[in-house]
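Hi Q.,

Before the meeting this afternoon, I wanted you to have the arginine prediction in hand. No need to reply - just skim if you have a minute. The sequence and ligand are here:
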Amino acid sequence: MTGDKPLWAGRFSRGPAAAMQAFGDSLPFDQRMWREDIAATAAHARALERAGILTPEERGSIEEALASAAAVFEVGTFVFDDADEDIHSAVERFLTDRLGDTGAKIHAGRSRNDLVATDFRLWLKGTTLRIAAGIHELSAALVAQAETHRDTLAPGYTHLQRAQPILFAHHLLAHAFPLARDFDRMLAAHRAADVSPLGAAAFAGTSLPLDPVATAADLGFAAVFDNAADAVSDRDFALEFLAAGAILGVHLSRLGEEIVLWTTSEFGFAVLDDAYAQGSSIMPQKKNPDIAELVRAKGARMTANLLHLLGVMKGLPLAYDKDLQEDKEPVFDTADTLAGALPVLAGLVATMTFDTDRLAAAVGTASAATDLAEWLVGAGVPFREAHHAVGSLVGRLGAEGRELSGATVDDLAAAHPAFRPEALERLDPRRCVEARRSHGGTAPERIADQLECIRAILQRQKSVLLGSEPKRIVKDVALGRRGARGADS
Ligand code: ARG
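Predicted structure with the ligand bound:
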């Protein structure tokens, strides 16, 4: 089918209405999958050769034509035809224009239904690993700041009210550990995408002697579909990516919000490097945390992308429906958003400086209250009674215009008869911090444990990204059972 007729023109007596075509075409957004479409098409040509449908010469000329298509795509000079609905029809039309009947043989035994799912999965396989690398980079920046601030005293918050003194590393690591889970979720999304649908054809398989298991191995997939209708209608892998992206987006937005707070004059905990802050067009003194604010907002966008595709999939009848074309834009958008946000946030975190004096000064006065109550517990007082005694002490001092940090031995004695003078030491925030030695706590030894743990996680992430750790254990087993690996070796 050459010229400006659609691939399916045979049955139709009239060409498509311009408005219908403009509304229905996915080419504007799916042309970014040209690499994957070319790879999948080349693999299908090899499959057709193995099936005896293409001669080795025909397969060779198809691969050559695909290589020249790749070369023009690479430099952005591929010329689309008005009838190219999507990247799949564009590549097929290119082959037919180039090779005539040989090109016209390529679509035997395949459908755009299995092809689009193949391209999309290949695209996501690469993208999930690149995003995982971005997560790793941001995590490393947070961990480096945590190393720097392993002795820095800071206020910890609940309800955004000063709650208990901590080492600032404790707080920074509380942003790093969620990212370690995000990394694993991104890898899980990678594994979900790593299943080949090619050879499912429209949804019911084909009468041609093709071997989808061999095609899966040829394309480097870890596994192959089990049911052809499921293969073309399954978008779980895209949902899993979007869910991982949405959760990551929520984590980034929480970090963004804290950066916004820390850099206010009111908090004054952190100063952004000039390279990661923006000014005001009218107020010369301003230094704004625009990037942190944008990241805070992008969490909403990535959440919406997940909801969009969940909504599309809900109630959708099997097998392929054009609704499925709506899968790509939310996925591309989440991927692009993360590809932008992760490196810029990593740079911002790596270069921001923290004002350790401000952080220590903000620890404040009431924050030793829990520790005083725990001192009483150590002396055998029931916790509820201890809580009440210290609460009354804080209230009374406040009424006198005094702070808990200025409490005297007499104040303590008046608050509860079990208090001894040495309890006053607990008013020192560093003593409070040192005392919280429980698992995962903020004491220096526990921070050292946490740093060791996260460093080991970062190391493991590095080996996964460098490919030295198997990502495919489960799927390899599945493929082995079906013999796909053996097909090529
Ligand atoms: N552009 C389509 C998509 O993205 C490709 C599949 C078209 N299949 C079909 N039967 N119309 O989903």
